[in-house]
Amino acid sequence: MIDVVLESLDDAKAEQIIAVDITGKSSLSDHMVVASGRSQRHVGAVADQLVKALREAGYGKPRIEGLPHCDWVLVDAGDVIVHVFRPEVREFYNIEKMWQAEFAEDAN
């Protein structure tokens, strides 16, 4: 599934695509992908194309949040969670930094 997601984002001309393996860091998903669109319209188009690619690959219909405003669209495909941001919104939240941090193995 991660390959379908990354290929779709690349085809849709998403920018600054970062894939983070969150296996063991979260029970929500195995991968988180963060990407940027150039504008609200581009963010919406990237998300729409991603949903279409996932359906065509046989992964069903993912859950989607944020499409009406297209500042930050979340596509939850189960094993992969994708965040598509406008650049300013992505910079403000900087969620990939949080998930890329190494967690201490024996944090008490």
Fraction of helical residues: 25-40%
User: What average pLDDT do the residues reach?
Assistant: 89
Q: What about the largest sheet? A: 5 strands, mixed
Q: Tell me the overall shape.
A: globular
Enumerate the strands of the largest sheet in spatial order, edge to edge or round the barrel: 1-2-5-4-3
| Gyration radius, rounded | 14 Å
Q: Give the number of DSSP strands.
A: 5
Helix-and-strand structural type: alpha+beta
Poorly predicted ranges: 103-108
DSSP strand (E) fraction? Answer: 25-35%
H/E element sequence: HEEHEEEHH
Number of helices: 4
Distance between the termini: 35 Å
Can you characterise this structure?
- The protein is of the alpha+beta class and 108 residues long.
- 37% of the residues lie in helices and 25% in strands.
- The chain is built from four helices and five strands; from the N terminus they run αββαβββαα.
- The protein has a five-stranded mixed beta sheet.
Sum up the structure in keywords.
alpha+beta, 108 residues, 4 helices
Set down the secondary structure blueprint.
Elements: H1 2-11, E1 15-21, E2 31-36, H2 40-56, E3 63-65, E4 72-76, E5 80-85, H3 87-93, H4 95-100
Parallel strand pairs: 2-5
Antiparallel strand pairs: 1-2, 3-4, 4-5
Helix pairs in contact: 1-2
In brief:
With 108 residues, the protein is an alpha+beta fold.
